[in-house]
Amino acid sequence: MLYRSLLRPLLFRLPPETAHELALKTLALAPNLSKQFFGKRTDYDFGQLRRFGLSFSNPVGLAAGFDKDGVVLNELAALGFSFIEAGTVTYQAQPGNERPRLFRLPADKALINRAGFNNQGAAAFAHRVTQSSANRNYILGVSIGKSRSAAPDQAIDDYTRSFEIVYPVADYIAVNVSSPNTPGLRNLQRPDQLESLLQTLQQRSAELQKQTTRAQPMPLLVKLSPDLTPAELGEVVAVVQRTFVAGIIAANTTTERADLRTPPDRVQGFGAGGLSGRPLCERANRMIADLYQLTGGKIPLVGVGGIFTAEDAWERICAGASLVQLYTGFIYQGPDVAAEINEGLLRIMSREGVSSIDEVIGTRAAAVASR
After folding, report:
1. Measured distance CA(48)–CA(368) in Å, rounded
2. Contacts of 324 (CB under 8 A, 6+ apart)
């Protein structure tokens, strides 16, 4: 409440990326701030949440994009997120697109970004995490993407190099082939290219496992675009099944601009980029429901896009998500949001007479998919 009534109005007076950087620097310089002022209980009783070989303390995570370089992972986890997806990191350090590249649409509770995978590179990320992750009590996912300098025919090699570097520090690795802000990246969702990429990473994963003490294969997830057609989605799911991918993250940002409350001329003035937040909610719900039906509920789905409340998270879970992630909801709702959603989910479970999230996953998939 303090955030929404006092801090958010102040932060929203700053350019979006400036406010983002200020938040990261504040947490980094005052590492106990999140726990002292916003830290919440983390011992929520959701039963056993076992997903792609990992145990999660609650179903709420932070999506990739907020902490690209792994600067404040522990501080973010103290806010009640059971897992943090860092990145997207690339093999080569890169500045990303020119600023301004992040825009708020408050009337829509949305963001437009065209950051372009700005990050310090996979090696710097892995080094930082190694130095700061002792006694880690959260699941760390690492999102990897293609370096802008890598030509299309070098994409698989570029992803593989990032994969090798972050492998020792990650609990799972997410393959981002769906950002609209790196030229040509979404072409990697084409079945032949995606299959080659995922097969190569799975093979390298098996080789690395033999060289380490990792007890189980590295869970490999793939993050998909909400702009895929139903036919394209079906083709991608077939690839995911053939390559034994551990999970699917749905969805990334959309290039669509339909049905926004923000005036069209203002939206047009922001330019290109991916739209996230509340306008993506219904589309992301349907995509999760479609994926649940296409996979027969046999592949864990991570639902992201437009989740702001416990009710949003509950609907995404009933549509088929095993876990949920926030990004824009975190920006608008503030540091209490993970705790609010977890506590709200427990109240909904009590109301519905269920003792485990697993009891309701996908129970409304058919109804949501048909909307």
Report:
1. 26
2. 59, 60, 61, 302, 303, 304, 307, 313, 316, 317, 341
DSSP 237-296: HHHHHHTT-SEEEE---B---TT-SS-HHHHHHH-S-EEEEGGGHHHHHHHHHHHHHHHT
| Cα 148–Cα 301–Cα 298 angle in degrees, nearest 5 | 125
pLDDT value at position 35?
56
State in words which class domain 2-369 has: alpha beta
CA within 13 Å, CB half, 145: 35
Residue-range domain boundaries for the chain: 2-369
In angstroms, rounded to a whole number, what is the distance separating the alpha carbons of residues 179 and 64?
Answer: 11
H helix or E strand, kind and range, residue 221: strand 220-224
Separation between Cα atoms, residue 77 and residue 107, nearest integer Å = 29
Is the pTM here over 0.90, yes or no?
yes
Identify which of 275, 311, 248 has the alpha carbon closest to the alpha carbon of residue 52: 248
124-135: pLDDT as tens digits: 999 999 988 767
| Dist CA 76 CA 24 (whole Å) | 10
The rounded distance, in Å, linking the Cα atoms of 357 and 355 is 7
Q: What is the pLDDT of residue 1?
A: 59
Q: Is the peptide bond before 213 cis (omega within 30 degrees of 0)?
A: no
Per-residue pLDDT band at 42 (split at 50, 70, 90): low
First to last CA, the chain: 34
- Has residue 30 got a pLDDT over 70? no
Q: Which residues are designated catalytic?
A: 179
Residue 259: phi, psi to the nearest 5? 60, 40
151 sits in the region (left: phi over 0; alpha: psi -120 to 50; else beta) called beta
Please give the Cα distance from 267 to 274 (Å, whole number). Answer: 12
